[in-house]
Amino acid sequence: MAKMTLEELRKLRDEKRLELNRRKVDEKTIEVIVSMGTSGIAAGAKETLQAFIDELNQHGITNAVIRQSGSLGLDHAEPTIEIHMKGMPDTIYGSVTPAVVTEIVDRHILKKELVDKHVFDRPAPDIIKE
Amino acid sequence: MAYSSYCLVCGGTGCESSKADLIYRELRRVAEERGVDNDVQIVKTGCFGFCEKGPIVKILPDESFYVEVKPEDATELIDEHVIKGRTVKRLMIKDKERKKHLETEDDISFYQKQVRVVLRNCGIINPEDITEYIAREGYAALEKVLFTMSDDDVIAELKASGLRGRGGAGFPTWMKWKFTKDIKHTAEEVFVVCNADEGDPGAYMDRSTLEGDPHSVMEAMTIAGYTCGAHKGYIYIRAEYPLAIKRLQTAMAQAREYGLLGDDILGSGFNFDIEIRLGAGAFVCGEETALLASIEGERGTPRPRPPFPAVKGLWGMPTVINNVETWANIPMIILRGGEWFAKIGTDGSKGTKVFALTGKINNSGLIEVPMGTTLREIIYDIGGGIPKKKQFKAVQTGGPSGGVITAEHLDTPMDFDNLTKLGSMMGSGGMIVMDEDDCIVDVTKFYLEFSVEESCGKCAPCRIGTRKMFDILERITSGKGEMEDIDRLEAIAVSMQKASLCGLGQTAANPVLSTLKYFRQEYLEHIENKRCPSGVCKDLVRYEIDAEKCIGCTVCARRCPVNCIAGERKTVHIIDQDACIKCGQCYDACKFDAVRIA
Amino acid sequence: MSTQTVETATFSDELLKFIETWKDKRGNIIMIMHRIQQEFGFLPWDAMAHMAKLIDVPLAKIYGVATFYHYFKLEKPGRNKVAVCMGTACYLKGARDLIDELSNLLDVGVDETTEDGEFTVESVRCVGCCGLAPVVMVGDDVYGKIGPDGLPEILAKHRSAGTEGA
Fold first, then answer.
1. What gap in Å lies between CA B90 and CA B98, rounded to an integer?
2. Rounded to whole angstroms, how far apart are CA atoms A102 and A92?
3. Which member of A51, B402, B465, B475 lies 3.0 to 4.6 Å from A98 by CB, making a disulfide possible if both were Cys?
4. What residues of chain C lie within 8 A of the CB of B280, using their CB?
5. Do residues C94 and C154 share a domain?
6. Domain count across chain C
7. Is A21 inside a domain boundary?
């Protein structure tokens, strides 16, 4: 990437915004975001991330993107993850140990049902308009 | 098979106690009875907050939000909402001002107490991918400043926003910037510094911001560079934050690659770059003049102010120094305008504040609320209350420079001025909740021990004062206190406030003064009756077994590490006081509350 | 106070290169000291002396800085650093008991290293995992919500093979 001009920055912003939006409405893509701040990692987020990679592989699910993000602030429920996929509400799960990952892949992704006792609420509305 | 709707029953401890479990079972029973259990999935969740109005039920995908639900409401919720698709108005929150029922979360401004300006991207974007930041209005503020705003415009916007420094003291940010801007043409060089030396024990909002959204801080620093005539910025960050450092380094490398840092930013002709400097574990370096000394490679001791860093800072040059949270607000202020920002918060304190909510609280974590939110809302609605149904005792804010806020002030709006009035301070935003089991004298001793270790030793009031106060507290907590000690504490505290060189020394006595003000009785109890009511100070504790309550289960005797509890199964047990080491294991182990603190 | 030395303060090529790039920057001392500590695990006397020569700064100044900041260690640490978080949240939830139990188990106080060089016990400022309080870190591994009972198992896990029961 060469240094950008103002126009290039604006173009990049629009393109990336479209891409992220497309991913949201895309039938095919399942997006898993693992919260990887210090608190999350201390609570085992790296194991959670690995468990997702393994579980998705095992089930031959190839249309999933795993992303990392910073902390949502739900420290009492770390590790936390968020899933976006067609046909399911956007969901934040907390206390996601590798065993819970197995359940999430099996129930949320494959059977399209929520996993009991691990659903958490988004802490605040997003102030950035899409 | 997919469900067409989801019914979420809040299973947080608060709701759990107010019959959430019964509601859950009722909803399932009714759904099955009506034959819709394949259409709606009924799920128990983690705490949703808003516990005051619990139990809470939320139905997806339409996000309907029901409060104070009772088990007998289950039939109506299933019949009306799930089957007929009609919302049950009477169970929704009423907005008194607009006189209507709030149907979904979107228009429930007071359901979600949190407003995320600083943490807008944390947990949403990948902090290691600059394009995700850019897609969410990232670097749009810099764009606006570089191509459409003058230095005075930027400062006017900051002034309109009313933003005050989030590092603790709350000095208006626009004034700091203006001091520097006004002399930029006469200065050989100007610097911009980010204070990320977050040292309060129990505060980690800056770390989390840098880990989750490093670009927001870098963008703001570049804006300050443009406004105040600096071409070089420093981020001074604790070496104990390796992940934040790594994410910053990645972010800086990407910004340089994209032409958002370095020479001729976005073709504007403006040059600015940032360098990371590591702290090395000295709390005093959070004080701005000490921090600057540390960047210069010196022992981090404070310098007298004035001159303020805005005029004479790093290497004697004008320096704009702000803390992480202050910086992270700035791109939004520029983009949305100062007026937008000033609508959030109270008269004297605009915007939001990030707090690290920890200690004896169910939902510990990082929260961001508008200034003026009450402690009650924070602790009970967001924090989900105190674990194990214990009694709330106090909240400590401001760390070693702050004080306690007690139950009688739970409804005071939290902002800079009110906290100072109560004898505490905003500080960086650590908020530690204490319950009946915490001893106020012991906690005060903890903070003093911290200040003793962290006093840099340059000025006598702080170096000697903290030590003397610690010694007195040590005496009191070990049962050797005398009544004069209270006067001594107060006398030392006042001298330190008046005579110390820097903020650390001037405020180090606050924990003592504040707790003496609100919990004098507890100090007196330690001194006069040699008794620690919370059972924390080991020298003052005596454990006894209540003959009425003990059922002789032998659990305590088995747990006792020194075998000083005697008693046969099903007979009352007795503690041998001479052998007891006061470890408290029996107290924790007893399920019948038979072990008590005498 | 005693100082420990390494036989010769041999700096790796990477370290020398790092010093070269930082040599002429203002206020470089602390950054170079961090890098040296990264290489040796502490700041050996000879290394500070060597650094003084390389960047032409009095050793007294380097020593002055080293003794001011808690992060810099002048003593060789044990193979495993056992750090008990003494942030406020951890303190309220029993960090003091963890330190007591560690000195009980390892027979060392805070900032001391066991005789076999296996563990150094430290009390550290808030590590920022208050949601997991009380917290103990061994090396980079974080153990949260633990009581004194949990410590023997953690120590056993980190003890080098062959030194069990030492």
1. 16
2. 16
3. A51
4. 30, 33-34, 69-72
5. yes
6. 2
7. no
**What is the distance between the alpha carbons of residues B168 and B337, in angstroms, rounded to a whole number?**
24
Chain B contact set for A70 (CB, 8 A): 121-123, 125, 127, 208, 211-213, 247
Closest-CA distance of chain A to residue C2, Å? 36
Nearest to C71 among B280, B315, B399 (CB): B280
Give CA–CA dist A16/B136, Å, rounded.
9
- Chain-wide mean pLDDT for chain B? 92
Q: Which single residue is written with the structure tokens 């003093």?
A: B448
Total of domains in chain A: 1
Residue A130 in any domain: the answer is: no
Span B165-203, pLDDT tens digits: 998 779 999 999 999 999 999 999 999 999 999 988 888
User: What residues 77-116 of chain A have any CB closer than 8 A to a CB of chain B?
Assistant: 77, 80, 82, 87-89, 94-95, 111-116
CB C51 within 8 A of CB B284: no
CB B281 within 8 Å of CB B236: no
Structure tokens at B569: 């199964």
Query: Left (φ > 0), alpha (ψ -120 to 50) or beta: where does B385 sit?
Result: left
d(CA B15, CA A8): 51
Q: Once rounded to an integer, what is the mean pLDDT over residues C66-90? A: 93
Tokens of C46: 């000879």
Residue B413 scores a pLDDT above 90: yes
Prediction ipTM score:
0.92
* Rg for chain B, CA atoms, rounded: 28
C67: Cβ contacts below 8 Å, ≥ 6 apart: C74
Q: What is the residue range of A101's domain?
A: 28-120
Helix ranges (DSSP H) in B229-320? 242-257, 288-295
* Bridge partners, residue B9, by sequence: B44, B57
Residues of B in contact with A127 (CB under 8 A): 115-117, 120, 332
The per-residue pLDDT for range A63-85, each reduced to its tens digit, is: 999 999 999 999 999 999 999 99
CB contact under 8 A, A120 and B45: yes
* B212 to A10: CB separation less than 8 angstroms, yes or no: no
| Bridge partners (DSSP) listed for residue B320 | B192
Contacts of C159 (CB under 8 A, 6+ apart): C80, C118, C166
Question: What digits encode the pLDDT tens for the residues A34-46?
Answer: 999 998 999 999 9
Domains and CATH numbers, chain B: 5-107 (3.40.30.10), 130-339 (3.40.50.11540), 352-435 (3.10.20.600), 440-528 (1.20.1440.230), 542-597 (3.30.70.20)
Of C68, C88, C115, the residue that ends a domain is C68
Q: Which domain holds residue C25?
A: 13-68
Asked whether the beta carbons of residue B280 and residue C34 sit closer than 8 angstroms, the reply is: yes
pLDDT cut 70: percent of chain B above it: 96
Q: How far does Cα B93 stand from its chain's mean position?
A: 28
**C139 within domain boundaries:** yes
Read off the amino acid at residue B303. R
* HEC secondary structure over chain C: CCCCCCCCCCCCHHHHHHHHHHCCCCCCHHHHHHHHHHHHCCCCHHHHHHHHHHHCCCHHHHHHHHHHCCCCCCCCCCCEEEEEECCHHHHHCCHHHHHHHHHHHHCCCCCEECCCCCEEEEEECCCCCHHHCCCEEECCEEECCCCHHHHHHHHHHHCCCCCCCC
The pLDDT tens digits for B6-41 are 999 987 766 666 688 889 999 999 999 999 999 999
Does the residue C28 lie in any domain? yes
Q: Is residue A105 assigned to a domain?
A: yes
Chain B residue closest in CA terms to C64: B299
